[in-house]
UniProtKB/TrEMBL annotation, chains A, B:
This is HAD family hydrolase. It comes from Parasedimentitalea marina. GO terms for molecular function: hydrolase activity. PANTHER family: HAD FAMILY HYDROLASE, HYDROLASE, HALOACID DELAHOGENASE-RELATED. Keywords: Hydrolase.
Length: 237, 237
């Protein structure tokens, strides 16, 4: 009997390794740096809202990743201070962004075992969005690079993009399970493309990526962490 | 007899469409904006040198493209003014960067005909570096997207990357001619990879991309413009 699933797609950031926490650390630093220069009613939470609004406004031109995030921080710093922020603070924002591009990769629990266990029996494909060079750096540092049959760094995770990527894999998109921590990017568009989606929650997820899980959809699954992935796939056949 | 060449790789920026001129316009604006805030001995040329130095220093972290260029402009503005540049000027630099991400694509002479003429007889592959989303936008706007059998947006153009891209094409890298305006990125590493390189000079080329042509190398060719490409390829067989 033909197998149901022959290919597994993995998201990278906060699915295989920590990422969002470096954004949170930087955002905290952003709030500290701007504290002395913003109106008193702009508490860190409201400041975070303004930054998120800038990020979303800029997604269509910058795409995902640290460079766009840094530019959105600078833009927000200028905006919320009515252009009174000193250049020295902007310099520190640039340096904070550069630190994000150099943070050491730390794998999430079970990531290495999960990918290694599947690499023999399935085609395993990494699908990630963000800055090209930075995603390549992180993959290289993760030590997982050689396990993947293909690596796709994409500007957006849409049903069309998933179809394009997985139509070339054996089993096509219908025979592929995408695994990731973003319901919005890894699960919903993959199921819309005709594939399968497994949600692996991460305790830190970017506001923008949050979305209700498609409960009841037979192509949707959820696991506690990556230690449960091989068992789930074996069950599905 | 087997054909010598079966695949043609095209660079994009300043090979198929104008690009560098938008960097030049922005750099001029950068000099104008900073004019009132920099020491008198820092003329536009020296300011350009400082910006180029920042771009090169940041290549390893930002990679190529407009987002990194914008961040390097801001960094340079802070540096050359000893952090005295007003936030309003930095805001204008951010806007100048955003304008670069929205400039309308204008094809170079003969680009459309050259790609169209080859698309039937050769595999045609676009190979470009820069920001993922921006390169995708430019390709979509160019109207040439459907002519290419494959599009590769890469973080760097090295012999290894060329080998990886073209080993999957019929004829492999040895049967592929890469065509572009950068001797450093499009010609030299492609020939080092075992392929062929054709240099199509553009009147504006980024300082960083300049390099001596490999005169006398039988895999090196130079043409005046893309109208000569089909003839050159026919001659080589």
């Amino acid at each position: 009997m033909a197998r149901t699933l022959t290919t597994v797609g993995f998201d990278a950031d906060d699915t295989l390794w920590h990422n969002e926490r470096f954004f949170r650390i930087t955002q905290q630093k952003f709030a500290e740096l701007l504290g002395d220069h913003t109106p008193v009613d702009l508490d860190p939470e409201r400041l975070g809202d303004r930054l998120l609004a800038a990020e979303q406004r800029n997604l269509g031109r910058y795409g995902y990743g640290v460079k766009g995030f840094t530019l959105s921080m600078i833009e927000t710093a200028i905006e919320v201070t009515d252009a009174r922020v000193p250049a020295s603070v902007i310099h520190e924002l640039i340096e904070a962004g550069q630190m994000m591009l150099a943070f050491p990769i730390e794998l999430l629990p079970h990531a290495q075992e999960a990918v290694t266990a599947l690499a023999g029996d399935y085609r395993v494909v990494l699908v990630t969005k963000g800055d090209l060079l930075d995603q390549e750096r992180k993959l290289a540092q993760s030590g997982l690079g050689d396990l993947f049959d293909a690596v796709e760094i994409v500007s957006e995770k849409t049903p069309e993009i998933y179809r394009e990527i997985f139509s070339n894999q054996p089993g096509g998109v219908a025979g592929t399970m995408m695994v990731g921590n973003s319901v919005r990017s890894d699960v919903v568009p993959m199921i819309a493309a005709g594939g399968w989606g497994t949600y692996v929650p991460h305790n830190l997820t970017w506001e923008y990526e949050k979305e209700a899980t498609p409960e009841g959809d037979p192509h949707f699954h959820q696991i506690k962490d990556l230690s449960e992935l091989a068992g789930l796939l074996a069950k599905l056949g």
